[in-house]
Amino acid sequence: MNRMSRNKFFLLLAAAAFAMFFAIGSFPLFDGSETFFAELAREMSGSDNYFVSQNFSAYPLNLWPLGTWLTGTSFHLFGITEASARFPSAVMGAFTVLLTAVAVTRLFNERAGLCAGFILSSTVMLFYMGKTAAPETAFLFFLTGSLLAFLQEKYWLMYLCCGFSFLTKGPLGLLLPAVIIFFYLLLLGDLRRLLKLHLFPGLILWLAVVLPWYIVLYETQGPVIGVSLLTVCRGWSEAVTLPWTSGSLLDYPLVLLLGLFPWTGLALKAVKDGICESRMEDMRRLIFFQVWWITVLVFSLLCPVRDAGSLLPLFPALAILLGWDLDRMLSEEEGRFSGWAWRNSLMYLAAAAGWVWATGAVDEIAYVGVGLGALTLLFGIGIVVILAVYKDGSLGIGLQGLSGIVIMATAFSFLLPLTQDQLSIKSLTGEFGKKIKESGRVVYAESSLRPGVLFYTEEEASEVDFNSGNSLQKLAKDSRPKYIFVRRQTYAKAAAFLDVNKWSLLAENGTYCLFEIK
Question: What's the pLDDT score for residue 301?
């Protein structure tokens, strides 16, 4: 059995740890999924109920609990901060990188494993998702573990991982591995192997992990909520919304292209080579990874919840295909890396132009975009020179992975501080939080902002849904003096059918507004 050397393992661990933990506490929680899950964990960690998630004190919204348990544990160990909210995601992201590298080493060889792990750790998608206070990387770790355990015929471990992935994202944690494995065996014409999976005792092991929580949930919340948790797409309805997406189908190619950077230029080649350039023994395994990424993509597209963040589970499969193909090129192409070089040149040129275009409309960040574009272009030139002139594929892989980590670290250091107030309510709650507490007035918040208001003020805030006539009517009938947090865009729409003459603007940061109503 192939094994990864200790030195290379720790080298990969260092790269993954830097990529996942860099700046996890240097920016506020983004409104939406991050504040939602962080507030959920904060309230759970401050209560005596660790078995059923209670959301926001005002009403129970039961979710699969594992992500909340991890974040609540982090709060107990490190205090309630942005860094501790994101700590479990960073850990699980790093673990997924190591798990992928070790498994690929055993399935193929050490160099392929090292390449696959390094590729995964340096992608934009995992760099970002490892810094979100949400259970996405925990689900990624257990899903990846279940699938790689199947390939290595470690079926008991497969069922155990399926149980924990179910506790993280619900039925998706069982259905995705089942569908991937079924279609893989169907393509190989080896459905008889299903009989070797110990299905009945494996199901008992899976139930031993899942059933205790589900029984308590069912008994405490009743059959209606219990059955509703079996909705398959519910697992992705609470997925992290990526800040550069809009919730349309066009987001999916954007996330794939941008999320795979700096390896986007080689992805299609790796998918093709996995079929056309592989030996029979390798091909049987590589087909599994092809089925893996295609199945996740199809599930994500078919799910009525349009969230391109749900594509995260296909990235380990693509990283493995890329790692295998790079290992093959180093072994078989003997320094003929011209195709690799020109693909990278186009990709880095497009990425550099993208930085400039994406930031050019805002004067405050345009110069940062130019700097990031120049940095991207310099890395691209260096990689092309190494591949085309010096014909050093190993150094090219190292510099290409390093470029992804360095460019993203630079963006997080210089671009994010200039845009974070457009993504988080923290600045308004911090400035007026003390005044709100001392006033004793009622606080209202727009639905998507309420978790952030609760997390940063630790004060109860009533929800107002500006898309609901009943909710707006309730707000209008409340004659008490109050504060209300709302997005500027939402306020502009609501002003047409609300009496806003009594609304006094206390603060605004471009995206968010705080009004006082006397």
Answer: 84
Q: Encoding tokens for residue 400?
A: 């290409």
β-strands 462-464, 482-487 pairing: unpaired
Q: What is the 3-state secondary structure (H, E, C) of 63-128?
A: CCCHHHHHHHHHHHHHCCCHHHHHHHHHHHHHHHHHHHHHHHHHHCCHHHHHHHHHHHHHCHHHHH
**For residue 482, what pLDDT is reported?**
87
If you count them, how many residues does the chain have? 518
DSSP-derived secondary structure for 385-436 = HHHHTS--HHHHHHHHHHHHHHHHHHIIIIIHHHHGGGT-SHHHHHHHHHHH
Residues 6+ apart with CB under 8 A from 104: 112, 113, 116, 117, 320, 323, 324
d(CA 353, CA 367): 13
Strand partners, 516: 483, 504
Determine phi and psi for 130, rounding to 5 degrees.
-70, -5
Among 204, 202, 209, 205, smallest CA distance to 166 is for 209
Q: Which has the closest alpha carbon to 441: 396, 392, 482, 498?
A: 482
Strand order in the sheet with 442-446: 462-464, 442-446, 482-487, 512-517, 503-508
How many CB atoms are closer than 10 A to CB 44? 22
Average pLDDT over residues 271-285: 89
Q: Which residues neighbour 350 within 8 Å (Cβ) at sequence distance 6 or greater? A: none
Alpha-carbon dihedral angle through residues 265, 143, 294, 190, given to the nearest 10 degrees: 120
Instruction: Give pTM, 2 decimals.
Output: 0.93
CA distance 460 to 457: 8
Strand pairing report for 503-508 and 462-464: unpaired
Amino acid at 2: N
